[in-house]
Amino acid sequence: MRTYWLFALLPVLSACTVGPDYVGPPGISSRFVRMGDTAVIATPLVARWWETLDDPILDGIEERALRANPNMAASQARLRQARAMLRIERANAAPNVAAGALAGHGRVPESGSSAAGAMIPALVGTGENSFDLYTAAFDASWEIDLFGGRRRSIEAATATAQATEATLADAQVSLTAEVAHAYIGLRATQTRIALARRSVELQQQMLDLTRQQFERGVASALDVERLSMQFETANARVAPLVAQAEGYMNALALLCGEQPGALDAMLDPPRPAPLPPAAVAIGDPEAMLRRRPDVRAAERRLAADTARIGVAEAARFPRLSWMGVIGIGGTQPSDLTHLDDFVALGAPTLQWSVLNFGRVQGQIRQRESARDEAEALYDAAVLGALRDTEDALARFRASRATVAILARAKASADRSANLTQQNYRAGKVSRIDALGAERQRIDAEDGLSAATAGLTADYVALQKALGLGWLG
Q1: Cβ contact 292:385 at 8 Å
Q2: Dist. CA 245–CA 242, nearest whole Å
Q3: 186, 210, 334, 390: which has the fewest C-beta neighbours closer than 10 Å?
Q4: What percentage of the chain carries pLDDT values higher than 70?
């Protein structure tokens, strides 16, 4: 009857869960980030933001990188490990049942020996000194989760798996931004290479004309040397740009899990850097923090460390286990069929570490300190996310202003070059003056091209700051 009362009390006892309950992360102030006139309050696209740049080649490279990047594969493997650990923790809370069987043959000394009688009493007086033994048995054990230690372990493992999943999403955010930055850098460098080579051609023509004038006594040796220096300086800019473009192509290949040079055929034809959309969806800070994977990962780690406090506190209380064995056996294989002749044993075990000399209390303090550290790291992640967004928006606004200024400068250089060409055809200025005006137009175009690529790069940085680019 007492055993029945014990089983009746188990559901009540196991409903107790020690340790603090996780009630969510600390609150954050609800406010909008500084937006100016560069953004709108809207819900941004979580995934594939790069499609807003309207560049099919970039879209294809992003997909290849997400599919084949080695670091992404490693992050996915870590996620599978975390999910497997969660399955193990859930299985640990269930009873453990095992089955075993034995078939053996043994020999002992003569039946008159005292050792034989002590070891195998059934053989005493039989005159036999060998025997067969056949057994089959099931055994089960179950640690009853009286104070919720197992439940807290499952809670911690669940939060850890979710944190690992968020870390994978954060890796996707970083990867997609890195691919876009490399692609934009490549396209901007290809444009600069074409402009630099055009500038070298103009410098060569100006130098040749000046040398002809020097030979006729119209130009001085100083004019020749000055233009020669400008020509060599312009020519020296080409080789580093070519190497820089090759570096970007190698980087893109490696990000896609390919060997350097694997994407050259796709990337060699020069294209202008893509332009960002006119308006950028931002949303409110709380939505951004819920969306950013690194903040979500920090919040899930805080939840896991909070649950581990309960795991440590459960060690302060008694542990109740249940062990049972059912077996059957004999000296003949046919004995295994005598189902009525079985042995059964069941017994509860109560363990309580009373004198642990402060070890359990020390473990609790350690877990509480780990929880405090996780909370501080969560606060740092929140502040870092807000700062990233503020800084990215500030740079994006500044880049837009810079592009507008340089666009006006480019338009002025175009007008100046056109007027100089008209004056040259009218005989009012020399060919060298016309070439010089054209070179200034190229310089203005180079500055505008670099600023435009910088604007797109800042747009990419803003998408990363908003936590976009991960695939659910």
Answers
A1: yes
A2: 5
A3: 334
A4: 84
